[in-house]
Amino acid sequence: MFGNRHNLGDDQSQAIAVVVPSYKVTRHILGVIAAIGSEVAAIYCVDDACPDKSGEFIETNNTDPRVRVLYNEVNQGVGGATMTGYRQAVADGMTVVVKIDGDGQMDPALLPLFVAPILNGEADYTKGNRFWDLSHISRMPLLRRVGNLGLSFLAKASSGYWSLFDPTNGYTAIHAAVAQRLPMEAISTRYFFETDLLFRLNAMQAVVQDVPMDARYGEEVSNLKISQVLGEFALKHARNFCKRIAYRYYLRDLTIASLELIAALMLLSGGVLYGGWNWIVAAGEGVSAPVGTVVLPSIAIVSGLQFLLAFLSYDIANQPRTPLHRALARLRR
């Protein structure tokens, strides 16, 4: 069905697919499709129960034979639409799946930069980073700039990919073998999709790389309102952080960092509770707290902070190094 398979130096036929979630994008979608280069074998436009009937619009007006329109009967959000495309790309035997939005804010000319690290065996997943060049950040609306800075820090902690930035960037590429192993039914399907996907990739020990790109905004209005999702995102990040720590340091492995975290929690909680209780008692009696009840919790808190910093240092350095899709390829042999 799809003819553009390219030999990229390793004697394997590599097929690149593009997934385009198509929801209220009839003004831009044809231009996006036209800008996708010949290196791409298949383009999956996913009509996510669009009220503007984006799928029918594409089928009526598109002339590119690589395009196939997929339909979600119920709106599932950008994550749900993307995973619909992932499933079809895997079923069609694609090698790398790139996700580009249909609103014209992502330049398809950058696609080779996202695909190359995966085909070269350096990464399992790549994502855009609009913060790499400070001279271009001013183009980004202030609210998005501030929101992305805050969300980036939370995403670093919850996903474990401390070297990444701009977690909500939706310009991504993934090796199809890795996409096939994703627990798609468990991944958030709406605005938390990109950051939840990073958490799932870390749980699989997949290698992820940032790809520098410029911020590009037109007249489109984002449906993502930071004020509406801040609380929801904070709770989900906290949930993923706790899950990641439990999976990585206590269920799948036990390292010195595992013990450092336990020591940190015990010393910090013990120091705060013991010191706080004695302070309350002394204040209630109108006397000064004994020296011992001040020194001991202080030592415990300082020691706990040192253990916590040691744990964080280990966690930051503990990044996946070997691309997962290589191991998956060996398993298939």
Number of helices: 12
Main beta-sheet annotation:
8 strands, mixed
Q: Provide the β-strand percentage band.
A: 5-15%
Shape descriptor reads elongated
For the record, the CATH class of the largest domain is Alpha Beta
Assembly classification: single chain
Helix content: 40-55%
Structural class: alpha/beta
End-to-end Cα distance, whole Å, is 25 Å
What is the C-alpha radius of gyration, as a whole number of Å? 24 Å
Order of helices and strands: EEHEHEHEHEHHEHHEHHHH
CATH architectural name of the largest domain: Alpha-Beta Complex
Number of strands: 8
CATH topology of the largest domain: Spore Coat Polysaccharide Biosynthesis Protein SpsA, Chain A
> Averaging pLDDT over every residue, what do you get?
88
* Uncertain stretches: 7-12
How many discrete domains? Answer: 2
Going by CATH, the homologous superfamily of the largest domain would be: Spore Coat Polysaccharide Biosynthesis Protein SpsA, Chain A
How do the helices and strands line up, and which of them pair or pack?
Elements: E1 5-7, E2 13-22, H1 29-35, E3 42-48, H2 54-61, E4 67-72, H3 77-91, E5 96-99, H4 111-119, E6 125-129, H5 134-137, H6 142-159, E7 172-175, H7 176-181, H8 193-203, E8 208-212, H9 226-251, H10 256-285, H11 291-317, H12 324-332
Parallel strand pairs: 2-3, 2-5, 3-4, 6-8
Antiparallel strand pairs: 1-2, 5-7, 6-7
Helix pairs in contact: 6-9, 8-9, 10-11
Summarize the structure.
The chain has 333 residues and is an alpha/beta fold. It contains twelve helices and eight strands. Strands 1, 2, 3, 4, 5, 6, 7 and 8 form an eight-stranded mixed beta sheet that branches.
